[in-house]
Amino acid sequence: MSRNHSQSAALYAEAVQYIPGGVNSPVRAFKSVGGDPLFMERGAGSRIFDVDGNGYIDYVMSWGPLIFGHAAPRILEAITDAASRGTSFGASTAAEVTLAKKIVAAVPSIEKVRLVSSGTEAVMSAVRVARGFTKRDLIIKFEGNYHGHSDGFLAKSGSGLATFGLPDSAGVPANLTRDTITLPYNDIAAFREAFAAHKGEVACVMLEPIAGNMGIVPPVAGFLETLRELTAADGALLLFDEVITGFRVSVGGAQQMLGVTPDLTTLGKIIGGGLPLAAYGGRADIMDVVSPVGPVYQAGTLSGNPLAVAAGLEQLTILEEGGPEMYDDLTRKIGRLATATQTAADRVGVPIQINRIGSMMTTFFTETPVTDYTTAKTSDAARYAKLFRSLLEQGIYFAPSQFEAAFVSTAHTDEDLDATIAAVDKAFDGLV
Ligand code: PMP
């Protein structure tokens, strides 16, 4: 018997009358996987429950922040405790100093850090800093990476833009993207050529050091190192957007894992413990261009919000306590899922590519190894949609889009994985 989604359907019918597309962020509309979007009611550990009372083992985990699962007791306690003292002061607090210190201690490139409320805001601000510091305008970014929805970063982006096949966004004046150069990810030769053509003009080269928004695509050997070497020699800044990878692949993020230190870093998701918090930081001399020390303006009514800071602080504290063993166990769990998925695909003869690193993975339905946006798009999105729908029906919630990652949390048990593996195995029977 198929699951009942009538309450979700009713809410969706109402939502579309008041909210564009019925959703507050496009991918939530389930457009690329079909069916009405689900309305969620609560989460607990590895599970999320919809308004019809269906439970799912969740591999979206709010798109990455919930590394300890839903409603993790220590995070809830930290938030409740902070809330009892007031929700916002618009003034400095001791906790934000503690959080800043923790971030500086953890992330190799960060000597000073500013807290903001979303990843979009973090990247937008970091790029303003890069331009203010270098007194240059050009930025280089990479196809299939996503850096939030601010003007100038949307050309050839991943995430929802990949899902909907949108090459760009309406409403962005051409002169705002004129200073953005977009290059293929992992293409060292293309980068060398473009960078040489703009010697002394590039403010920053920005990228996801491990791409997550075209599905997971790790950097090829030498890619990050080449960017580091050439930007340093030219006086351009290197910006790692670690909104997904920060505290996800290790406490020091992808830069620590891969041994390449950028000048600027953006963080989000995990550092907020599921509340709206993000950050940008980097070398102290660069960050000191930010107002009120320097001429680059950036501000926020809710920046450093006490609830978000409390959640983030507790989350980072637990990660520190867990140490490398905690990360190793997350990697082991995603490894189980990856191996089982490959086995199921091989059994039925469906070609797939699994990209995984740390506690994140993406299954692409293609015979071509996925190393950039072009190869990511060779994936058979219809097959992904079928897999998604079959898993959903079996009580497993993966991202409602091919171009995203699956995340495991410390709350996912081996029993959860056993159940997921059985469901994946069954789902592949329907993909032939
Ligand atoms: N950068 C990256 C790498 C992201 O994955 C995201 C969001 N998924 C953003 C920036 C934007 O963050 P937010 O959605 O919080 O604005």
TrEMBL record:
InterPro entries per the UniProt record, alphabetical: 4pyrrol_synth_GluAld_NH2Trfase (IPR004639), Aminotrans_3 (IPR005814), Aminotrans_3_PPA_site (IPR049704), PyrdxlP-dep_Trfase (IPR015424), PyrdxlP-dep_Trfase_major (IPR015421), PyrdxlP-dep_Trfase_small (IPR015422)
GO cellular component terms, A-Z: cytoplasm
Keywords tagged on the record: Cytoplasm, Isomerase, Porphyrin biosynthesis, Pyridoxal phosphate
Pathway in which the depicted protein is active: Porphyrin-containing compound metabolism; protoporphyrin-IX biosynthesis; 5-aminolevulinate from L-glutamyl-tRNA(Glu): step 2/2
GO molecular function: glutamate-1-semialdehyde 2,1-aminomutase activity; pyridoxal phosphate binding; transaminase activity
Modified residues annotated as N6-(pyridoxal phosphate)lysine in this record: 269
UniProt-annotated location(s): Cytoplasm
Enzyme kind, highest EC tier: isomerase
SUPFAM superfamilies linked to this entry: PLP-dependent transferases
Cofactor(s) listed in the protein's UniProt record: pyridoxal 5'-phosphate
Biological-process GO terms, alphabetical: protoporphyrinogen IX biosynthetic process
Pfam families assigned: Aminotran_3
Annotated EC: 5.4.3.8
Catalytic reactions of this protein: (S)-4-amino-5-oxopentanoate = 5-aminolevulinate
HAMAP family registered for this protein in UniProt: HemL_aminotrans_3
Family according to the record: Belongs to the class-III pyridoxal-phosphate-dependent aminotransferase family. HemL subfamily.
Assembly, per entry: Homodimer.
Designated name of the protein: Glutamate-1-semialdehyde 2,1-aminomutase
Organism of this sequence: Capsulimonas corticalis
Lineage: Bacteria, Bacillati, Armatimonadota, Armatimonadia, Capsulimonadales
